[in-house]
Amino acid sequence: MSKYPKKYDIIVVGAGHAGCEAALACARIGCDTLLLAIDLDKIAAMPCSPSIGGMAKGQLVKEIDALGGEMARVADATAIEYRLLNTKKGPAVRSSRTQNDKLKYHGIMKSAVERQSNLDVKQALVEEVLTEDGKVSGVVDNTGYVFESDAVVIAAGTFLRGLIHIGFSTFKAGRAGEFAAYGLAESLEKAGLVMGRMKTGTPPRLKKRSIDFSQFTAQFQDGEPVPFSRLTEKLDIPHSPSYMGRTNPETHRIVRENLENSALISGRIKGVAARYCPSFEDKIVRFGDREGHHVILEPEGMDTDEIYASGLGNSMPMEVQLALVRSVRGLEEAEIMRPAYAIEYSFVNPQQLFPTLETKKIKGLFLAGQINGTSGYEEAAAQGLWAGINAALKVMKQPPFTLDRSEAYMGVMVDDLVTRGTSEPYRMFTSRAEYRLMLREDNADIRLMEKGNQLGLVDDIAVKELIDKKNSIFNEIRRIKSCIIKPTAEVNSYLESRKSKAIDTGTSMDQLLKRAEMDYSSVEELAGNPEGIPFKVSQQVEIEIKYEGYIKRQQQEIDKFKNLENIMIPADFDFNGVHGLSNELKEKMDKVRPTSLGQASRMDGITPAAISVLMISIKARGMKA
What are the backbone angles phi and psi of residue 350, rounded to the nearest 5°? Predict the structure, then answer.
């Protein structure tokens, strides 16, 4: 085999959302990095929904940005519509979402990786991971050409043994029109990694001029958009709305009469599908009593006629797809530009990874994205950043980087994956984060930016601005708490206008702000700061004061959580030698090899009694040492 003359510090395999973030992080930290993509024209492609963010995903995007990642900046630069979800609920579950121009997204991210110093970008189909003495040494492409490195990050998406299904037609592909990676999957299995199969899919793309949009309800942007990225000074959004419609009994009849033609329902697909994102034929089977399901038409970009038909994903033959699409009101003359399809692919059981996303079997081999059993651009990008950082730190012989469940949504995700594994495509939800009041979108910079600076991914100027912001928040909270509002006629008249109870004695401004019907504008009206307060500061002040009691209670819970997290389990700890643990728990712990007592406590089947036994054993070992 011939070799490329240059040896790299790190090779990243795959240039989707995970691969791009991994490669950029490695290069920005200072490692000589190579990014390998099957097709350079598909870097950071959006094969499914042309959007970024959403429920809990918006939090991930903000965290990526706070740590110095790229997704947020590109999302802002390519947004064609913006929405803030859950505005009627508390700040813990509010999430931003942008509709994006998919071609511009690809172009701007491609430019970012191509122009990044310390980063080479090449087109190659990787077939094998090379190892020496249990450590990764490089990769081999399908021509037999070798690229050497000290670490490898694999971000293969749906390409590992990818198999596309459209009715009875089945063909090998990582995405429609792209090669699948069969050799790489075999190489990972030979290395001892246990793999499984998962399924996902994408709906049809329709021709814009063939749709009667008057039969749909337009959904426009709500409110003033707030950028994902701290680097975005102003959003220039063209405002291209999406359109809401519904299927009907005729649509459902067409599907029911053709279920035997569905690759999913007929059993030809063996991969596990996600329960929370069912295909259309799966909805008809599971929710047969419903008269209609949502169909959302979303533009794929400003310079294309393709419309993404969210809600109509299926694995039916083309003639059935055309019939079911045209049964929807407003789509009677619709033309399908790209058919819907289902794809099944191989993934690696993430319990075989350390919390750094390095494999336990092979030193220096990191996995990120859908290869770990996740779904979604945002989940992939967050893992790519995480794996890239740790690959760079390992090469540079520095301590690893991790975040726990109280610090970030990405910490929750990685902990879920490596501790519990996943039997279906994993998606981030706010409900997965037990400390979500502390892990809000609006405070991602406060939580993580200084960590990004320590890694070399965030500049000193940004951190100085952050410190100034934190000081402003502290000072404004202190000022508001010390400000006493007297019960004047003018004050009570204002309170009445806000449908708030009048006061008959001097009341501190923070107590008034805690009322549900009051917001920071009431501070400006009754106790305005003469210096003026930027929105990003007033937003934090309002949340900190309104939810003060809840925040203190959650902080107490975090302190208890940290007590277990801080009890580390030695890497060579013998779980089989722990008296009092059942054989089943010994086997589970030896398989996962938790790094802390906290991680062990979150494993399936672990009881408080088992944790007590394990704690005693760890302390006893420490005393002997």
Answer: -70, -10
What pTM was computed for the model?
0.95
DSSP reduced 3-state for 303: coil
Quick check: is 478 in a domain?
A: yes
Contact at 8 Å (CB) between 566 and 596?
A: yes
Question: What torsion, rounded to 10 degrees, do the Cα atoms 426, 431, 435, 441 define?
Answer: 80
Helix ranges restricted to H, 212-291? 249-256, 280-286
For residue range 458-472, list pLDDT tens digits in order. Answer: 999 999 999 999 999
* Alpha helices in 403-534, H assignment, sequence order: 409-420, 444-455, 460-482, 489-497, 509-513, 520-527
**The two structure tokens encoding residue 439:** 């892990």
Query: How far is the C-alpha of 528 from the C-alpha of 320, rounded, in Å?
Result: 63
Q: Are 506 and 518 part of one and the same domain?
A: yes
Q: Output b/e per residue, 558-582; b: 16+ Cβ within 10 A.
A: beebeebbebebeeebebeebeebe
Where among 316, 342, 368 does a domain terminate? Answer: 342
What tokens appear for 17 in the block?
């959302």
Provide the token pair at 73.
């900046």
Give the separation between CA 133 and CA 36, rounded to whole angstroms: 24
List the structure tokens of 373.
């059993």
Instruction: Enumerate the β-bridge partners of residue 81.
Output: 99
Reported as a single tens digit per residue, the pLDDT across 265-305 is 888 898 888 888 889 999 999 888 899 999 999 999 999 99
Whether the CB-CB separation of 101 and 75 falls below 8 Å is answered with: no
Q: Is the dihedral of CA 567, 569, 570, 574 positive or negative?
A: positive
How, if at all, do strands 217-219 and 242-246 pair? antiparallel
In a domain, 3, yes or no: no
Pair (469, 447) in one structural domain = no
- Kindly tell me the burial class for residue 503, based on how many C-beta atoms sit within 10 Å of its own C-beta (0-12, 13-18, 19 or more): middle
